[in-house]
Amino acid sequence: MPVAEARFYEILLWSWIGLAVLTFASLQFIVAPYGRHTRGGWGPKLSSTWGWVLMEAPASLGFAAFFWWGERRMQPGALALLALWELHYLNRAFVFPFRRRGGEKPMPLAIPLMAIFFNVPNAYLNARWLTHFSPGYGAAWLSDPRFLLGAALFLVGLVINWQADQILMALRRPGETGYKIPVGGLYRFISCPNYFGEMLEWTGWAIATWSLPGLMFALYTAANLVPRARANHAWYQQTFADYPPERKAVLPLMF
After folding, report:
1. Cβ(60)–Cβ(93) under 8 Å?
2. Count of domains in the chain?
3. Would the pLDDT of 1 be above 50?
4. Is 137 helix (H, G, I), strand (E, B) or coil?
5. What does the pLDDT average to over 216-228?
6. Using alpha carbons only, what angle is made at residue 36 by residues 168 and 27, rounded to the nearest 5 degrees?
7. Residue 123 domain flag
């Protein structure tokens, strides 16, 4: 069984690296149909609040389950990395959906189903690496420069992500609908600091784990979010005549 799982793990990992390439290519032509880009033709819908819970909960709960399955689950470094992962995903699955405005706006069920298709294998690949396939993350890993740098980047990205979400939530008063130009924080420089923060998080994760599964997730995050950021940026420019021309899409001073 260990040999069979190792082969399965390797195939799945390289398949998910290929999926990152496929995702980036497809998003050059297709804009994910939710939020400001919601449109018909994508099948049944559900409230976006429960859509967010449905698509993010497997990343949190699945990771915890796969982590617990591993024989090295009690190593200090592995537990610290578990805490970083859950710090992001517990908020994303069980706090953020209930704080955001417009939660009853419908979302195509296809969106959370596609997210689950990625999130469950991704949770398996990363959690199983930490507690089974890796050389181990003992106490010494907590003082390793790779962990310290990666964890610092992760936490900075997390703060950027949370701040950007808070600015968006504060744009509308209770009962208000429609969109406004966000201001403050990194919105001074880019249209999607929430995406920038998330990309920084998983880049930090890749460094903190120093692993191919971590690198895969960082690459997939960029492949998924950069095209979406560019679509959001173009939407802002088309919707608001006074949209700040100096703003970039997702990387400050770049694009």
Report:
1. yes
2. 1
3. no
4. coil
5. 96
6. 110
7. yes
